[in-house]
Amino acid sequence: MKHWRLPVFAFVAFAQLAAPASLIWKREQTLRHGRVWKLRTAPVDPVDAFRGRYVALEFEAEGQEISPPPNASYQQAVFATLRENAEGFAEIDQVLASRPGGDDFFEAQLRGKTVSLPFDKYWVTERDAPAAEAAYRAQSGRDKRNAFVTVRVFRGDAALEQLYLDGLPLGEYLRANSGQK
Amino acid sequence: MRAADRSGTRWLLAELPELVAGGIISADSAEALRRHYSTTLPTEPRRIGFVLSAILGSLLIGAGIILLVAHNWDFLSRPVRCAISFGPLVLSQALAIFVLLRRNESAPWRESAAILNVAAIGTAIALVSQTYQIQGDFARFILVWMLLALPIVYLFRTNVGLAIYFVGATVWVVSSKTGDFFGVRPNDLWVWALLLLGVPAFIARLRQDRFGFGMLLVMTALAVATAFSLGQTDEIGAQSFWRCSFAAFWTVVYLVGAAPFRDWRTIRPHPFVAAGWIGILSLAIFLSFQDTWRTRQWQNAVYLVPRHYPDVLAAGIQVAWILAALLFATCALWRADRTRVNFAPAGLAPIALVAWGIAKRTGNPLIPSLLLNFFTFVLGIFTLLRGIRAGRVFEANLGMLVIAILAVARFFDSDFEFVLRGIAFIAIGLGFLVTNLVVLKRRVRA
């Protein structure tokens, strides 16, 4: 009976592989089938924007006052839908306590009369980190509002796709501006 | 033979030639001693070193792989990055299968395979999350990680793995949904279920090697996890009851070290005895201040019979803790040798309970604080006298120290004159000197 551990371990190993695999699967579904939205980042405190290897993101939509579902508590999980404004950027449309119909909604957290979006970090590689920091600071200051992200939204999941600075994806922006220093 | 006597045994074996040369024992006796102790001297020390280096090696290799991969990250496409994220996990699983089949009886192999695997689970999830910009909920990440690690603890009978599991449960309970630490949610009570899931493994490890360092590590992790869980539970349940639940916690810590682990080492007590003393003394001194019993929470947060689910359960857990401590103390008092174990510190649990009851009933902070002052004073005197009677210098001084700390604490919240304080400190100083003199004289006479 020494080998009972082996089949049990096989099961456990499968579960271990399934956990990250399910993350990938869900995210791939969102990236393939989700609708693209552009979210403008909010002006940030430049000192605080960069922490190690990610950009700390804040969005204008997070400052937008919404009407929360009735009887909702402060940090309750809610479902949000988006709408496009005149400039082509996304705003919060509806905030609901239960899952709406259709595919174009995502889960967020209520913060009183605003919502907190389920993404606030944009991971960059070690090599790009210093340049990305300087660029994001330059493009997301209070006088310039040239930073936004694209997000794909699909059945509750919201996948951060790309950070754009001055209309270019972060990587291209860094390459285009690398000679200027 | 007790684990600790190993260094003593080694010393004795090294002394033997000199003893024989000096004519103190015969060569035959020396040989007999050598034979006796050589067979009982286990190869434990080398095993600990081996286990430690195996663990350290596995961690370093794992970290190195991750760093190498991270360096070239942006050259790789997303599918390749995903494949690489699974690499450490699959490798660790292969190693685990090898260990299960071929090295199942070797503790170092089991420990390192388990640690590598547990680390690889977290790594895989984290790398995939980073690749896909998946943010999210740190608490949920920890929870998934720990639940996937738990079977490994059972399959590989690993001490370090079990300690990691308990620490993970702690991290889970203190990380709230938004990622800020120490936010409280009703769901936090599930931490007790998490801890209970580890308990059968804990008992199994206890049975196998009670006095080893691995067990000490696991016990420490469990104690830390329990302390944090109890703190969160106190926030949800009857908030003012934390005084009793933590009195119970420290009492249990002290008693575990003092009673069931009394024989841990011949020359020194279990570390839990020291931890228990520090905890009990700190809490008793803290509660001996009137201000700590003067709280608005008496009016608005103490419902011993709360009305809905999380509070009822939390209050139940709080009460269960104090009952468990009292029961444990009674059993230990019943069974243990009272000349060898000082049971006075365990008095904190019932005293705190009575004091809390009075505070709750009357709302008056004076009597509860007096009760705690009285307890601390008696604890000091009792320990002092025990030390003197048994001729134990350390214990006598510990008793004096308790009294001295109590005296210092009282000077902080009272308006005694400087002269009076001066006289009191001189008296305590004299007390220290006299105590040591008495104990030493007794020793000499004995």
Which percent bin holds the helix content of chain B?
A: over 70%
List segments of chain A where confidence is low: pLDDT < 50 over at least 5 consecutive residues. none
Instruction: Kindly report the greatest chain-chain contact and the residue count on each side.
Output: A-B, 33 and 36 residues
Report the helical percentage of chain A.
25-40%
Please give the radius of gyration of chain A in angstroms: 20 Å
**Which structural class best describes the helix and strand composition of chain A?**
alpha+beta
- Give the helices and strands of chain A as they follow along the chain: HEHEEEEEEEHEEEH
Query: What's the shape of chain A?
Result: globular
| Computed structural class of chain B | mainly alpha
Mean pLDDT of chain A: 81
Distance between the termini of chain A: 68 Å
First-residue to last-residue Cα separation of chain B: 29 Å
Question: What fraction strand of chain B?
Answer: under 5%
Write out the strand line-up for the largest beta sheet of chain A, numbering strands in chain order: 1-9-10-11
- Average per-residue pLDDT of chain B, rounded, comes to 83
Q: Spans of chain B of 5+ residues with little confidence (pLDDT < 50)?
A: 177-182
Given the structure, what is the number of helices of chain A? 4
Oligomerization status of the protein chains:
heterodimer
Radius of gyration of chain B: 27 Å
Structure report:
The complex is a heterodimer of chains A (181) and B (446). Chain A is α+β, with helices and mostly antiparallel strands and 181 residues long. Chain A contains four helices and eleven strands. The model of chain A has no long low-confidence stretch (mean pLDDT 81). Among the domains of chain B are: 1-42, no CATH class; 239-446, no CATH class. Chain B is built from 17 helices and no strands. The longest helix of chain B is centred in the first third of the chain and has 28 residues, at 44-71. The interface between A and B is medium-sized, with 33 and 36 residues.
